[in-house]
């Protein structure tokens, strides 16, 4: 018979008790089903059933199933997920930095100081196994959006095409400050990757600050939008409306009768809404008539107006101005017979 001292028995008993205690403290394995959600070309979200109350956290092992080894492009791998303190029986984790159109396999364990549980067993697509999506949504256009030729009512923009799979581009025009969307342009895809795309924006308000965001789109969806960052990079202020130029000082007078006459003058403005013709009684200085003449497209063209309802044998003096919604130009200066001055018959 072997003789064992009481002291050795006590030590052996303590070691066995510690081993048994450690074995019982290892957390249970998470539920075998690992749900997979929100799969994109470069990421996925998983959910696991928490079967323990004593874990310090979970380890998510991501395998590239084409070779059955841990994916070295994911760091760290395994991914450490904190213990579940949410009150839910499920814990969630995001897996990032994946490759598009690749097959992955996920195994999850629970761990604490006593050790690590056994791993879940991937069983099916969306049950611990998934394939990332193909890259489909086009790349965002060049972050720099140039702004050119700003006028009172519009501007011209340019941006770089960074995709080869877009169906077109969307240009969103916002009022800066209020972020009110005032205009959306849809541009056809007529460019190649690396080309510059140009677009004109019309019918804006004068003296107003705008910001422009641009996306590329196709049947998969829309890219991220460019971020306006500065004057001439997606942001611009339309010009204030300028006073139109005064018509040419020479005002011709024709076809004078007892009670009427016809005048002509040269349009010097590009931004007028119309013209005002002031008819003054030369002797008294009283303005007896004001005629509104609509604008004619173009600069350097002659405008005409008929003046009726005049008194016979009376000298009149005519002055003409151009106007828009902002202001009115100076008036022409009537200087002689047939230049803004005439006598009715």
Structural write-up:
- This protein is mainly beta and 345 residues long.
- The chain has three domains: 27-131, Immunoglobulins (Immunoglobulin-like, Sandwich); 146-237, Immunoglobulin-like (Sandwich); 251-343, Immunoglobulins (Immunoglobulin-like), CATH 2.60.40.
- It is built from one helix and 27 strands.
- The termini are far apart.
- 23% of the residues are buried.
CATH architecture group name of the largest domain? Sandwich
Domain count: the total is 3
- The CATH topology of the largest domain turns out to be Immunoglobulin-like
Helix content bin: under 10%
How would you concisely characterize the structure shown here?
This protein has 345 residues and is mainly beta.
List the defining traits of the structure above.
single chain; rod-shaped; 345 residues; seven-stranded mixed beta sheet; 3 domains; Immunoglobulin-like; six-stranded mixed beta sheet
List the helices and strands and how they pair.
Elements (H helix, E strand, L loop, with lengths): L5 H20 L9 E3 L6 E6 L7 E8 L4 E2 L8 E4 L7 E6 L7 E10 L2 E2 L7 E2 L2 E4 L14 E3 L6 E6 L7 E8 L4 E9 L7 E6 L7 E10 L2 E2 L7 E2 L2 E4 L13 E4 L6 E6 L7 E8 L5 E8 L7 E6 L7 E9 L12 E2 L2 E4 L2
Parallel strand pairs: 9-10, 18-19, 26-27
Antiparallel strand pairs: 1-2, 2-6, 3-4, 3-5, 3-7, 7-8, 7-10, 11-12, 12-15, 13-14, 13-16, 16-17, 16-19, 20-21, 21-24, 22-23, 22-25, 25-27
